[in-house]
Specification:
Strand order of the largest sheet: 4-1-10-9-8-7
Strand content: over 45%
Helix content: under 10%
Structural class: mainly beta
Oligomer: single chain
Shape: globular
CATH class of one domain: Mainly Beta
Distance between the termini: 13 Å
Order of helices and strands: EEEEEEHEEEE
Length: about 160
């Protein structure tokens, strides 16, 4: 616990225009990795625009570690096919948390992260103070694939007894 800063809740919202890996569609799921941790969503059958709306929670020890997101197509009789990957960091999000902001109007934009070659963002990402919490909505463009994006939201969870940000 002494190395734990807190928990990062990643809400995997949906996939947009994901690649077709079966005959006419795909059976996608998402794997999120940070360091040695690895979590995955459920499989959504025959859908290249899946809606997962699923929360995956990572324990954060080092906020400088990047987060890898990989989309796979579930196959019953063969190895699952990769449908693209993205990598992003949480440094701007952690900096916003460290500002220790309180009592801002809900919807206040704290900072914006612009897309660049190193962050896989498909559009500008806003870090927002919403309902007493700091959240970041991201739309990441998948690499090493012909098409596809995944929409996610980050939210921090403080843990009693953890080191904290």
């Amino acid at each position: 616990m002494e190395h734990l800063l807190g928990l990062l809740r990643i809400q995997v919202k949906r996939g947009v225009n994901l690649a077709v890996r079966d005959v006419r569609s795909s059976d996608p799921y998402v794997v999120v990795k940070m360091g040695q941790q690895k979590l995955k969503t459920r499989v959504i059958k025959k859908d290249v625009n899946p809606e997962w709306n699923e929360d995956l929670t990572l324990s954060v020890m080092d906020p400088n570690l990047p987060i890898q997101l990989t989309v796979y197509d579930h196959d019953t009789f063969s190895k699952d096919d990769k449908m693209g990957e993205a990598e992003f960091d949480i440094q701007a999000f952690v900096e916003a948390l460290r500002m220790n902001l309180r009592d801002l109007p809900s919807g206040t934009i704290i900072t914006k992260v612009k897309p660049c070659r190193t962050n896989c963002l498909s559009e500008e990402s806003c870090i927002i103070y919403r309902d007493g919490k700091i959240v970041q909505d991201l739309c990441v463009r998948l690499r090493n694939v012909e098409c596809g994006e995944v929409e996610i939201q980050l939210q921090w969870i403080d843990l009693p007894g953890s080191r904290g940000i």
